[in-house]
Structures are given as C-alpha cells and as structure tokens.
Amino acid sequence: MFRIDSSPFLPRSLQSRGVFDPHHAHPASSESPMTAPPSNAPPLLSSSLHSLPLLARGKVRDNYAVGDDRMLMIATDRISAFDVVLGEPIPGKGELLTQMAMFWFAHLGHIVPNHLTGDDPQSVVQPDEREQVRGRAMLVKRLKPLPIEAVVRGYLAGSGWKEYQQSQSVCGVALPAGLKNASRLPQPIFTPATKAEMGDHDENIDFDQAVALIGADLAARVRDISIQLYETAAAIALKKGVIIADTKFEFGLDTDGTLTLMDEVLTPDSSRYWPVEGYAEGINPPSYDKQFVRDWLEQATVDGQPWGKRPPAPAMPPDVISKTAAKYREAFQRLSA
Hints:
Elements: H1 12-17, H2 22-25, E1 54-57, E2 61-66, E3 70-75, E4 80-81, E5 84-85, H3 93-108, H4 130-133, E6 137-141, E7 144-145, E8 148-155, H5 158-167, E9 169-170, E10 173-174, E11 184-190, E12 193-194, E13 203-204, H6 207-214, H7 216-239, E14 242-253, E15 259-262, E16 271-275, H8 291-299, E17 301-302, E18 305-306, H9 318-336
Antiparallel strand pairs: 1-2, 2-3, 3-6, 4-5, 7-14, 8-11, 8-12, 8-14, 9-10, 12-13, 14-15, 14-16, 17-18
Helix pairs in contact: 3-9, 6-7
C-alpha cells in the first residue's frame, strides 16, 4: 500500500554511500516554522493546579480533568529513561516537546483526526496557575485510549536491532539477511507494543497479538495510518536534515468511535531522531532523543554497583542535564528552521 521506491526517509545518495550529502540535508522549505518557546521559564518538575482535578501523572505529563469531555495535558520538564523517571528536570523540555507536537499535529491533520480542541489551555486555569501552563500545555478531547502503542520503524535500531540479531525479525515481521545496526529497512514496519504501567517496561508484541487486543479491523487501520503518518513525517523531517529512525503513536476512540491520534506525536521522547550528517550503518548514530541520558545511565553506578534500571535513578550531574537540554533545543531549532 505504501510505496518506498523513492524513499522519503533517506536520499538515494545516502542509501548507496552511507555518507552525508549536504545537497539533500537543507533544501529550501515552505513548511511553516514553529514558534520558539521562551527560554527563561523556570523548570517545572511537577505541576500543582488547584482549580482542576488531577487525573494522572505520567512519566512526563500531568493530566487534569476539564469537565467530563476535555483534559488539560501539561508537559513538565521531567525526563524518563528505561521507563524510570529521573529526579532532575531538563530546563525548557516541556515547552519544546509541546511546540514540536503542535507542529506535527498541524502537518498530519489531513491523515487522521487528532485530540486537539483548538481552545487556549490558559483559558481553563486560574490566573495564578497560568505560568505552569503557558507554552507547555494542550487542551484536548478525552478519549478512550487503545491499549497498544503503535510503533513504526524505518531503520533497525534499539530493541529492534537486538531482536533482529536473534531471529532475523522484529515483532514477527521477517526481515532480509545481512542488515546492520542502523540499516534502513526495505519498507517501514509496524511493530506494536503493549502499554506498561509507570515503572514497568513496554512489551513488544506481534500483529496477531494486537488483533487479539483491539480487533482485526481496528488493528489494520492503526497499522496503515501509523505507517502513513511515519512516511509523511519522515519526508518533512528529511528536508530539515533529520532522519526519523522510528517513532511511536498513540490512538484513542472518541464518543462516536472515531479513531483519533492522541498524546504526544513525533517528539524526541517518542522518536529516534538522527542528524543526517551523522548517519552511517553499523553504528549507533548520534541522536537528538534521550539516548544521551540512556548512555550515561548505562555506565552510572549506585553504591558502587551498576544501576539496575529500577527506581530510584541516580542523580544526573549538571553537565548531563545541560547537554541533554541542548539536544532538545537543537532538534527543535533544526525542525523549525
């Protein structure tokens, strides 16, 4: 259904040579830029609204009920890795994630409806709460979430690379022999996962398991729409010099049963972003996502022992915090150029 003869997610010059071609990285673009968020807002580790009931605190977002049919989603500056929330905020992260998500919602709205209401998030809070909301919140429809994460992979990386080495497949999708770490896949593949409770790990599943959870028709629609979203976004990002190696989408159903894109979309927290100039097969390419924090945690110790990837996480030193913040800013600046 989705042709990849002229792949939007890596130019042929790069596919054939595995090197950077500057003529493909930054062509002139008519895409509307994102509004740069203010850089002087104090970090927000946790919100504390008194005018709305708290529904849940996730790894990054705090969700508040706005009546029975809407929800205020506040992107804090928390960061998680290995499904564990770290104790230190990344300054500016929540605003950057929100601006990037809004950018992608605007560019993908022709493919599938999304959960945005179009209402100003500051309109539903009290004046003394607006600083916690400004630039970092979305006012959205309340949906019935589907119990799967819709992961799409255009490249072999992370857990997909590990699984491929064992079985030459990823989530039940057979792949050609001879692929390397970071290889471009022959075509994007849909590799769903179950949604884990905070502190637990998401579990990769195959398509048949997704069908068992949400039904054959809905699973097929989620798969096809997710691949279309990925291919569209990959083409846009490539014009900005960014490869989207993989990403995850979340969907819900509204009161009419309409399939709706929800939560964050195509941010560095939910996607693997690679700068084109750093791409090569056989390595872990440099990234704009949380890989910097993951790499630091892999060598971090607690009481002289390697950290076991369970709470509590070791405290991030200031240089890790500042370098991580810089990665998020760089991703935002490149996409918004």
